[in-house]
Design goal:
The structure holds two protein chains of two kinds.
Chain A (H helix, E strand, L loop, with lengths): L2 H18 L9 H20 L15 E2 L9 E5 L3 E4 L2 E5 L11 E2 L2 E2 H20 L7 E5 L6 H13 L4 E8 L3
Parallel strand pairs in A: 1-8, 2-7, 7-8
Antiparallel strand pairs in A: 2-3, 3-4, 5-6
Helix pairs in contact in A: 3-4
Chain B lengths: L1 H10 L7 H17 L5 E7 L7 H10 L6 E5 L2 E6 L2 E2 L15 E2 L16 H14 L5 E6 L5 H12 L6 H4 L12 E4 L5
Helix pairs in contact in B: 4-5
The chains are: A alpha/beta, B alpha/beta.
């Protein structure tokens, strides 16, 4: 046996010995992990489940701050940023650089495209509530912007009123909340 | 060289014990979730603007009882308050300039409309308290503004009229409205004043 062959034979023997040896296993205790995961699941379920309406502000929208503590109750949100009005996940109306509604979409205080969408939504909601034997309250949640002009705000509220929405709530971020 | 190789073979490969690392990581997740800043949404309930209240309705209401009819008009240069259809400062035969604010800006000379802190919310709150002391049963205030007034100023005005210590959460759950709450029902009106 040449020295090389001897070296290879020794190496193979060592390898075989190493393979035969039982490996140290690092057992992970699944119980503690499950505890943590359960806590996270409960926490997240509680956070998401407590709000009847999920508010997802549009990009760049800064919701006004307030010390009001009344919770948001059920309703249909309308998002009015400085650039656009969004209803039912559809950007319906563009606002100009000064935050005014595009004059082409405006008739007096009525915002045409927004009225059409709101009236359709109101009709659907009414039918659904009737089928459930309940009365439709017509509640609108106005998610505005800190810099939203009063004139635009009034136009949105007027349009909602014409579409038979009778109750309004301004969505705000609770200060110190 | 040969000695080095031998030493490494003797020591064998040491596997890192991941268990404590995993424990720490899984504890960090809820810790970070709890430390996270969460924006809590709230609602300010408002009554829609009245664009065309008929004259007959108004007359009928006036004859029934004499309400406070508190109105706050937000101007670019301050607040104009009126109660019982009379502008503040114009009582007892005094004359008051209807175009001027009754509560001027806290930051005098500030022309930046988006500077939300330029209004004197403290003084407005104090005026609301005075009216509330005189008309304890009144809870309604009509708020209107110039077209250019930003929404944050409107919200701050509502907060001041409602009272800084007013908490309506329990009232919404059926309890009575706390005494700290002044004028907590807001009517937002277009072009009133």
């Amino acid at each position: 046996m040449t020295p090389d062959e001897l070296f290879l034979a020794k190496k193979a023997a060592k390898k075989a010995a190493r393979r035969g040896k039982t490996e140290d296993k690092g057992d992970l205790n699944i119980t503690s992990l499950m505890d943590i995961v359960s806590i996270i699941v409960v926490y997240l379920l509680k956070s998401y489940g407590s709000d009847p309406v999920i508010i997802t502000p549009t990009a760049g929208q800064k919701i006004p701050l307030s010390n009001a503590d009344a919770p948001i109750t059920d309703g249909v949100p309308v998002y009015v940023s400085q650039r656009s009005i969004t209803f039912n996940n559809k950007r319906l109306v563009q606002l100009d650089d000064e935050g005014n509604v595009d004059p082409a979409a405006l008739t007096g205080h009525l915002i045409g495209p927004l009225y059409d969408a709101m009236a359709e939504e109101a009709e659907k909601a009414k039918l659904m509530k009737e089928a459930q034997g309940e009365v439709w309250e017509g509640r609108l949640i106005l998610v505005g912007d800190q810099k939203l002009k009063f004139s635009t705000l009034v136009n949105v509220m007027y349009t909602a009123g014409r579409a038979e929405f009778a109750e309004y709530a301004f969505c705000v971020i609770q200060m110190g909340g | 060289m040969a000695r080095k190789r031998k030493k490494a073979a003797e020591e064998g490969e040491v596997e890192a014990n991941l268990l404590p690392v995993m424990n720490v990581m899984f504890l960090l997740i809820p810790a970070l979730l709890l430390a996270m800043e969460v924006a809590r949404f709230a609602a300010v309930n408002v009554t829609p603007p009245k664009f065309a209240a008929s004259a007959d309705q108004k007359k009928e209401k006036e004859e029934k009882d004499k309400p406070l009819n508190l109105k706050v008009f937000i101007l670019e240069d301050g607040y104009r308050i009126s109660a019982s259809n009379q502008m503040q400062g114009a009582d007892a035969g005094k004359s008051a300039d209807a175009s001027k604010p009754t509560i001027p800006l806290a930051k005098k000379g500030s022309n930046d409309l988006n500077d939300f802190e330029r209004y004197d919310y403290a003084k407005l709150g104090a005026e609301a308290k005075k009216y509330k002391d005189l008309f304890k049963h009144e809870t309604v205030v009509t708020i209107s503004a110039e077209n250019t007034i930003p929404m944050q100023v409107l919200i701050n005005t509502m907060d001041a009229m409602r009272g800084t210590d007013c908490k309506l959460l329990k009232a919404m759950q059926g309890e009575t409205v706390p005494e700290e709450c002044l004028f907590w029902q807001s009517i937002v009106e277009a072009g009133a004043g």
